[in-house]
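Need tokens for this chain, all 287 residues.
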Amino acid sequence: MSAGMPRSGRSARETAGLAARLVVAGVIIATSCALSGALAPGALASPQTQISAASEQTLETMLTADQGAARTDPAVRADEISRRFLGTPYGADTLVGSATEPEQLVVNLQRVDCFTYADYVEALKRADTREQFLASLIDVRYKDGVVAFQNRRHFFTDWAASAPAVATDVTSSVSAHAIPVTKNLNRKDSGGAYLAGLPVVARTVSYIPSGQVDSDVVGRLRTGDYLGAYAEDGGLDVTHVGIFIATPDGPVFRNASSRSADDKVVDTPLSGYLRTVPGLVVLRPVV
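Here are the structure tokens for all 287 residues:
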């Protein structure tokens, strides 16, 4: 599990604020880095940016390509940016940090899982430069802009439930058949916690049963909406995340798939995907 700023026309005051946030976060740019010395568990001091030379090059390429999409509408921008990841290999456990290991700001564009894929797409949507991307990634991945394991948005609905909000939960507004369920996130139904060192969070999660996702519901979705596969376990909100894209050939679920037949970012026909999950949670990005 892992899991806004204007994209253009940034004022001098906004630029100064961006630089200040990067300094406060203690971001240190390096092609390969590791924290040196021992830090106390959960320490917030000087998190580093872990980014490879290959990811640096990919980021530069994507940001350059994004200049052409900088003035388009949000749906077009979401489609264009997310499409650039198609074919990127699936890779789990790329983030660094735990209750006992200091958090690092990881940028790995060579391998993504469903949550980090969403992180990078959303951060790229908000950025025209490398510095804006890093600052946006902090805002997207972490609560209150603090790079720390305890502040990481580990659950999909954290994007809507914690500040600064990345998205709005529109599940109930796109379907009258949405079902609210009270969950205790991070507490397994079988006992124990999913993530050690993190509290249990009570939250009402609404989902649309897959059988109720008809043409009317699909018609209310927008390209760029984030779709979560509803989890039946009371300790999880969703089990998988992807992006809704309306294409000329029909709606697709663009996602970093761990299926052996895929093992990369792919476009999966939404109708087929719905047959494999209990239902959908829909979050609409705020930018």
